[in-house]
Amino acid sequence: MGNVFVLDHPLIQHKLTHIRDVNTGTKEFRQLVDEVAGLMAFEITRDLPLEEIQVKTPVAEATLKVIAGKKLGLVPILRAGLGMVDGIIKMIPAAKIGHVGLYRDPETLKPVEYYVKLPTDVEERDFIVIDPMLATGGSASAAITSIKNRGAKNIKLMCLVAAPEGVEVLQKDHPDVDIYLAALDEKLDDHGYIVPGLGDAGDRLFGTK
What residue stretches are annotated with the Phosphoribosyltransferase domain (predicted)? Predict the structure, then answer.
């Protein structure tokens, strides 16, 4: 599907199955989301540029590779996106973290921005926007628009599960944004939940209803 990448690594798929399970409690759910986010970080950073430097090992001088000074930024969409940040930061500890807060207007059902805080050097960073669920696509699209309006030029989206409807909205609104998923699910139900999905990611992460 063009710019959509479903990460089918066995470890990701195994852990995602347990994330989906209704019998998985808050503590285990949180840990599994953390682990899957870290595994997804390997794939989403696969194209980072490398450069060679000289290093003296205990045995010899060697020409070896390091990441070529790429500045990365993580932007979780509040609140559920917070549950994936720690797993990614373990892999990319130098990344800076911004936040975007949105709520859904009960009249228009459109996302309304209430909080945005990004690193000061927005134009110099590649950003990964993070949200466990890509359902209707409204929140993710609005968050990406907000980041672009502040100067970001290279953005990727990372989600655990997505519905085709949300992917379609993202591809229409932001065709330049690559989408990384652990699973592309069947559809949205009449209440806007992803089927089979995993329920409400925020409630399951934070133990709320």
Answer: 6-208
